[in-house]
Amino acid sequence: MTGRADDGHGSPVGRGTSRDRWPDGGSAGGLLSGPGGDALREVASRVRVLFAGGKGGVGKTTVASALALAQARAGRRVLLVSTDPAHNLGHLWGRPMSDNPTRLTATAPGHAAAGGAGNDARGGHGGGAGCVDGVEIDPARTIDEHLRQVGDTLRRLMPERLSGEVARHLELARDAPGTHEAAVLERIADAVETGLAEYDLVVFDTAPSGHTARLMALPETMSAWTEGLLRRQERSARFGAALRGLTRDDDGAGELVGRRDPRAERDGEIRRVLLRRRTRFERLREVLTDPATTSFVLVLAAERLPVLETIELHEQLVKLGVDVGALVVNKRSPAGAGGLLDARRTREGEHLRTLDDALPGVPRTEADLLPDDVVGEAALARFAGLG
Start and end of every ArsA/GET3 Anion-transporting ATPase-like domain (predicted)? Predict the structure, then answer.
């Protein structure tokens, strides 16, 4: 497993539209127990799919993990999925992780055991026990599996003499623009489908803003692209059928009755494949744009570029029809610390006024800059304010 350590940890100190409405000094409690925590808890509690996104290095993994743990402590079964190629989940939880679900939480008080920590967690739910299972999507494995499925379909549909061309095309496609995004989208669809069927909540720890915005737009793009392929395939099938009809004479037509038509079967298989893909992407888009099912938490630092990027990402998500449920301002300089930290807090307040002016209706929670790293379940529980 590879990845960089998440460097944005903190505990919130309040919620408001003005710097003067936040308490001075120290911590106001954990992420969910301090001012503004109730709104964040409500968002996580009411949905089945939750995304944590924002600029790189602001603490998305910490916030996503804290929300997942809080929901597990409330009795929900949570699937926590990292879509960022530079994974942080394993570092944060202090667990070896993989592309398969791994149990991250110990048994919560009063809950029956639901599987050992660090073991493959599939099928380990039951007894009403809350848990967090984690997945770090492996980009290389995801692309390999995606291309394998595409290759199997192509080899089934294409003449055997073209198998070499199919292999060459797939090898070239491995590093082609869009291959990684298409493969990750398939895994996100898998995670959403698995989560809705086997878990109570899916929490996505996403890649930095630009990647995430493109990824959230892909279901609609892929649906439209697949629809175009279907239209072209239908025209091709009709043309082929008409051409075959013109080449048959009256004497030969009767002999073909009841015989297999390989080309018609191939056309039918292509259509079924395209219809399955269109249906899957349409279903994913319906889930992502249903505010009763899915919401997005934007995580940021109180600095100029993260604030501007957050405002831009919010605009893009709203245009896509995705609900933005809350803001988490992480790594906030503490009040009353004097010197450099006081000067930074003053400047941060100016940036947050820009944020409040742009997004006045989105609930906001702040999180103090902490001197220590958040590593492991116990530290995450303290960060979240779970006692």
Answer: 48-105, 135-384
